């Protein structure tokens, strides 16, 4: 264990025994990269400003972690937001925030990079900086006493609200830009040592270097920034600095506790071609870039063979639009059936959920499906350019029911431009039709409040006020109550803070700071959301600005007028705070989309026929025809599809209009090795496949009796592993068994398959023992060929420190 033993000893005695799930803070996971950090030239703290369970589910963190750790002169280590109990203990014992891999203090790193996924996590960043002993404000950091603090992610496309706290931002795809930032800081460190730069100018010297990198915004230096774009993602993200090419990677960190998304996430595409006018991700991640089918299949196989996870998630903004989705699922179906793996899709566009997709995903485990109609009527869906039909939705709901699925989650948005009460009634009407078409399907309705996000056609529209949103939520509660659905909604106060930050400018930094000092922390956790702290911060800053506009105390209505920029529609010719960020989408295109929504609304009112009638008002999916958004020049930047047949057919004039319009980076060569050594774990044991044995609901063998042998794994739990709970320990062992492909017999339930196992009784938390066991059954045909000593060694090679197989008996 290459950890700071002094810090661990203090944690072990004073902290870890007194907090929930202490393994969150121990870094015991398999798949981590642990280097001798004291002898590494460049140290990067990869920070996620939310809890471990959420951060470990984020695919982007894993990508950056692997890229940086592939370089021998960079050590990248993780740090997550501590839970309130851990936060209190760290403060009580004056222990600074530390990294998981080596227990190194965060303030000793060269760079601390935060992932910006949600605006309400911003005060968490301030907490993490404070716990680390790093000055909150960039202006207060001097010399080499503090790391350079940066941030990236979707929220960074409006960096201004965090300007006061950050030294730099990465705008756009982070793979290359993050690596270049590390190189620039390392070069500056060497210049400092050699006397090229004086310590008094060191931080500004580094910032000037960072400002020269495409996609990097440095407050106070950068005037405008063009987003970083990785034009070809048909690779596994690992950058080889010696060849300047990407190569195949083999790393997956396997969490020791249940995470929010406890599955293997494999990115199959980046970007979305649908063009929904409210969706920020659909614009900032353009163009669509798909990975080749074979690359995805290899990534899935490799991930399953190194993690032992039982579910895969094909990650994309619109998974069903992937060009080769059905051939991909056909290949994966054999794998998932053989190894009892379930598949899930985080985002399926209505109209893309075919019968074949349902059939493939239902083979092992019937995962819940999520669909997003967004609006209750076709009129409003047309206005927001949600190009789906009610017929498609009803057909897909019926298909889910027919394939045995039990649950469907539907996402809607309220407060959209031009919304009417009839659109809310349309939600209830839609639910009635779904329940009729898909009998027995449990429906959950999730309602979010529209926030006009930067860089979208709807950025000029106002946000609806809290009282109107609250009225609509209560109205929906009333009309949905008789329909027997689960109804969930977002607190309008949360949406207000989200809008306040996402649409803010430099002044917003002051409000964020005051809110933090007033107790706003952990706000991304709804039960801990502290709205009063935001009210206090707003009123304090209002008094500081000598604009006494609050006359009714601390109620929500009293300060709405102060932020009228949230509630008043903008002139499309006025400048917006975030205009200096170039997302490559032409602003003229965004304006046209904005105008089309107006014309679509007028059309729905007056039913006129004119030159603006028909398909003109609906912007087509750019998989069919280029929509002239300005991102692609079809030379250096263009959509990338997994098959040639799926490439967009462009009219010559479309291409001509895009020529030389923007200066873009060329793509990166996809030189990687996709081969996988399938026998790496089990080529000596004779366990070369996993056979399916079917059981009925009573756990009896459904087909002819299979001769089996009982196998007992005796294990010990000592030292640092004492912080693992019983269920956590069992799941870690089962993942190791799956990786090595021990052919355990399975029992079948209505929804899934589980190994037929028995366990020793749980021991008290923090106790140690050498007499724990797991018992299972394996077919005798496999038992005869098993080398138990070799098998024990292979399992132990996959277990965290302190957890060890002592003996295996047949």
Automatic annotation (TrEMBL):
<dbReference type="InterPro" id="IPR045784">
    <property type="entry name" value="Radical_SAM_N2"/>
</dbReference>
<dbReference type="GO" id="GO:0003824">
    <property type="term" value="F:catalytic activity"/>
</dbReference>
<dbReference type="InterPro" id="IPR023404">
    <property type="entry name" value="rSAM_horseshoe"/>
</dbReference>
<protein>
    <submittedName>
        <fullName>TIGR03960 family B12-binding radical SAM protein</fullName>
    </submittedName>
</protein>
<dbReference type="Pfam" id="PF04055">
    <property type="entry name" value="Radical_SAM"/>
</dbReference>
<dbReference type="GO" id="GO:0051536">
    <property type="term" value="F:iron-sulfur cluster binding"/>
</dbReference>
<dbReference type="InterPro" id="IPR006638">
    <property type="entry name" value="Elp3/MiaA/NifB-like_rSAM"/>
</dbReference>
<dbReference type="InterPro" id="IPR007197">
    <property type="entry name" value="rSAM"/>
</dbReference>
<dbReference type="InterPro" id="IPR058240">
    <property type="entry name" value="rSAM_sf"/>
</dbReference>
<feature type="domain" description="Radical SAM core">
    <location>
        <begin position="258"/>
        <end position="493"/>
    </location>
</feature>
<dbReference type="InterPro" id="IPR023862">
    <property type="entry name" value="CHP03960_rSAM"/>
</dbReference>
<dbReference type="Pfam" id="PF10105">
    <property type="entry name" value="DUF2344"/>
</dbReference>
<dbReference type="Pfam" id="PF19864">
    <property type="entry name" value="Radical_SAM_N2"/>
</dbReference>
<dbReference type="InterPro" id="IPR018768">
    <property type="entry name" value="DUF2344"/>
</dbReference>
């Amino acid at each position: 264990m290459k950890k700071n033993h002094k810090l661990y000893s203090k944690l072990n005695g004073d902290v870890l025994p007194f907090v929930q799930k202490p393994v969150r803070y121990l870094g015991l996971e398999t798949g981590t990269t642990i280097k001798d950090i004291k002898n590494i030239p460049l140290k990067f703290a990869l920070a996620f400003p939310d809890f471990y369970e959420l951060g470990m589910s984020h695919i982007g963190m894993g990508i950056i972690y692997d890229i940086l750790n592939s370089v021998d002169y960079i050590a990248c280590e993780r740090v997550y937001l501590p839970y309130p109990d851990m936060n209190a203990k760290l403060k009580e014992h004056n222990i600074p925030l530390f990294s998981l891999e080596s227990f190194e203090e965060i303030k000793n790193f060269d760079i601390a990079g935060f992932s910006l996924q949600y605006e309400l996590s911003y005060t968490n960043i301030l907490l993490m900086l404070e716990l680390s002993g790093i000055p909150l404000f960039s202006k207060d950091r001097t010399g080499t006493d503090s790391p350079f603090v940066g941030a990236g992610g979707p929220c960074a496309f409006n960096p201004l609200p965090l300007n006061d706290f950050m030294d730099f931002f990465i705008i756009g795809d982070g793979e290359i830009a993050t690596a270049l930032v590390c190189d620039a800081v390392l070069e500056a460190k060497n210049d400092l040592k050699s006397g090229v730069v004086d310590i008094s100018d060191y931080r500004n010297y580094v910032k000037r270097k960072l400002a020269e990198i495409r996609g990097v915004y440095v407050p106070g230096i950068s005037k405008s920034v063009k987003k970083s774009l990785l034009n070809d993602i048909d690779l596994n993200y690992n950058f080889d600095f010696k060849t300047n090419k990407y190569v195949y990677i083999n790393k997956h960190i396997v969490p020791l506790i249940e995470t929010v998304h406890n599955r293997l996430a494999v990115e199959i595409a980046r970007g979305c071609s649908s063009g929904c006018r409210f969706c920020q991700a659909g614009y900032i991640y353009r163009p669509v870039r798909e990975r080749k089918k074979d690359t995805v299949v290899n990534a899935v196989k490799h991930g399953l063979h190194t993690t032992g996870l039982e579910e895969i998630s094909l990650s994309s903004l619109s998974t069903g639009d992937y060009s080769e989705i059905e051939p991909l699922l056909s290949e994966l179906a054999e794998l998932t059936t053989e190894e009892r793996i379930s598949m899930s899709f985080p985002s399926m566009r209505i109209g893309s959920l075919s019968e074949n997709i349902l059939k493939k995903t239902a083979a092992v485990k019937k995962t819940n499906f999520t669909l997003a109609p967004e609006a209750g009527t076709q009129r409003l869906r047309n206005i927001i350019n949600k190009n789906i039909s009610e017929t498609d939705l009803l057909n897909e709901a019926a298909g889910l029911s027919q394939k045995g699925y039990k649950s469907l989650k539907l996402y809607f948005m309220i407060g959209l431009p031009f919304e009417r009460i009839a659109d809310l009634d349309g939600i209830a009407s839609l639910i009635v039709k779904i329940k009729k078409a898909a009998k027995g399907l449990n429906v959950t309705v999730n309602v979010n409040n529209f926030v006009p996000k930067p860089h979208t056609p709807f950025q000029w529209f106002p946000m609806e006020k809290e009282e109107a949103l609250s009225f609509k939520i209560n109205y929906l509660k009333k009309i949905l109550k008789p329909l027997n659905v689960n109804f969930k909604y977002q607190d309008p106060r949360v949406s207000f803070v989200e809008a306040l930050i996402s649409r803010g400018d430099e002044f917003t930094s002051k409000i964020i700071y005051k809110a933090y000092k007033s107790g706003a922390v952990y706000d991304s956790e709804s039960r801990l959301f502290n709205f009063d702290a935001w009210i206090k911060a707003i009123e304090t800053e209002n008094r500081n600005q000598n604009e006494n506009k609050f006359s009714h105390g601390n109620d929500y209505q009293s300060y709405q007028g102060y932020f009228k920029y949230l509630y008043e529609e903008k002139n499309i010719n006025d400048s917006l705070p975030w205009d200096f960020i170039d997302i490559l989408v032409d602003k003229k295109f965004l304006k046209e989309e904005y105008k089309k929504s107006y014309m679509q609304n007028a059309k729905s009112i007056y039913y006129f026929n004119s030159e603006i009638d028909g398909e003109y008002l609906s912007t087509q999916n750019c998989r069919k025809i280029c929509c002239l958004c300005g991102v692609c020049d079809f030379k250096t930047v263009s959509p990338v599809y997994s098959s040639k047949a799926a490439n967009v057919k462009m009219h010559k004039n479309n291409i001509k209009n895009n020529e030389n319009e923007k200066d873009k980076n060329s793509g990166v060569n996809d030189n990687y090795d996709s081969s996988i050594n399938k026998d790496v774990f089990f080529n000596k044991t004779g366990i070369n496949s996993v056979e399916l044995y079917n059981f009925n609901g009573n756990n009896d063998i459904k087909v002819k009796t299979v001769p089996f042998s009982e196998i007992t794994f005796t294990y010990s739990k000592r030292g640092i592993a004492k912080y693992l709970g019983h269920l956590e320990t069992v799941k870690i062992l089962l993942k190791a068994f799956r990786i090595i492909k021990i052919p355990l017999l399975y029992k079948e339930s209505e929804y899934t398959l589980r190994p037929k196992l028995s366990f020793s009784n749980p021991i008290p938390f923090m106790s140690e023992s050498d007499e724990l066991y797991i018992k299972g059954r394996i077919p005798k045909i496999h038992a005869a060929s098993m080398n138990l000593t070799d098998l024990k060694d292979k399992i132990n090679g996959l277990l965290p420190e302190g957890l060890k197989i002592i003996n295996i008996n047949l």
